[in-house]
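Before we proceed, please read the two lines closing this message. Report back on whether the C-alpha cells fit the sequence:
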Amino acid sequence: MRVVKVVLSLLFLAILASNIRLVSHWSESRGVYDDICYLRQAHLFQRFGWHGLDTSLARETDGYLAGKLRSIDFPNWNEPTRAPCHTQTADGSKWVMTPPPGTGFVLALFPEGFQVVPLHVVANLIVAGFALYGLWRAREAVSLTLAAVFGALSIIFMINPTKASYSMAPTMVVCALAGLFTARLFVGESRRLLMVAAVGILLGLSASFRIANVVLSAGYFLFFGLSFLIWRTRETFAQGLTLGIAFLVGLLPVFAANLVNSGNPLVSAYGGQDTAARSLDTAVLLAYLRDTQFLLIVVACVGTALLWRFASHASVRPLTLLVAANLALNLAFFATHPIFTQYYVIPVLMLSLWTLLFAAVLTRGPARGLAKADGPRPPEMLSRIPH
C-alpha cells in the first residue's frame, strides 16, 4: 500500500504543478467586474490599513478604481457611481462596495499588481496538502480509493470552477479545513468543545469571502439545535452554545464592514437579486442539471448514503445526518435563488466531500459497544462519542 501511496502522491504533485503553471499566466485584468471590487478592497487595506474596511467612493482620490475599470474597457469608467458591485446606502449618504472584506484582505497580503497569482498558488498548495494528508491517513483499500479519487479532483477543481471568482480560492481552503475539523469532531476526538469552536469560527469566517457562505452553517445549527431539543443535556447545550458564539466570532469582520459601510452591523450592502428569495425556478434548476455541479451533488448524496449504510464507527452515522442536513438546506437555498453560476453550490459540496473523506480515513475498526451496524443506537449518539 505504501508504494501505491507514493505513486498517487506523485500524481497529486503532477496535477499541482500543472495548476501552478496555468495560474502563473493568469491576468488580473480579465474583464470580470467582481474582480475589480476585490482588488479595490485589497488596495484600500494596503493604503489605509484596517481603515480600509470603509469602501466609500469618497475615498477614491487616487484614481485606482477608474484606472482598473478603464483597463477592462468599462464604458462608464470615469463615473464612480456607475462602477459595478457598488451601491448607495439606504440613507443616500455614500456609495460603498457590496462584497465582504475577506477576499480583499487575503489579496492585500501580496504586492499590488501581483496578488491573484500568489493567492491561487498558495490556495492550491494548501488544498494539495489536505489531499496528501487524507491519502496517507487512509488504512484500507476503500478509504485509499476515496482519498485517491477525491484528492485528485479537489486539486483539479482549484482551476475550474475556482477560477470563476477570486472569492473561491480562500473558500475552498476553509471548506477543506472545516471538513477535517468536522470529521475530528465526530471521529475519535476527545476535545469536543474545542473542535466545535474551531468549526464555528471557520464557518463564520467563510462569510467574509462570500456572504452566501453563511448558509454553510445551516445544517450545523439544525443538527446541534435538534440534539439539544431532543436530549436536553448539559453537553448538548454547551456544544450548541459554543457553536453559536464561535460562529459570531468568525462573523466579526463582516459585522465590522457592515457597521462602517452601512451604519448597522446586521445590514449588508447587498440588495436586489442578491438577497431575493422566491419559489423554485425552473430555469435555475435546469441550469444546475446541465452543469458539472449536478454530478458532484449526486456524488455527495451517494457518498453520504453509503457512509451511513456501511459506517464502522458509532459516531459516523450522526456525522452523516449533519452532512445530509447541510446539503439539503444549502441546495434548497440555491434552488430558490434567482441567479445561477458555475460555483454557487461548490462550497457546500466540497465541505461535504471533505468531511466524508476525512471521516472515512480517520475511522478505524468497528464501533465499540455496538454488536451490529444496523442495531439500535443509544440516544446519546447525537451528542456523545465513545472514546
User: Anything to note?
Assistant: Residues 365-387 have pLDDT under 50 and may be disordered. The CA atoms of residues 127 and 217 lie 21 Å apart. The chain has 15 helices and two strands.
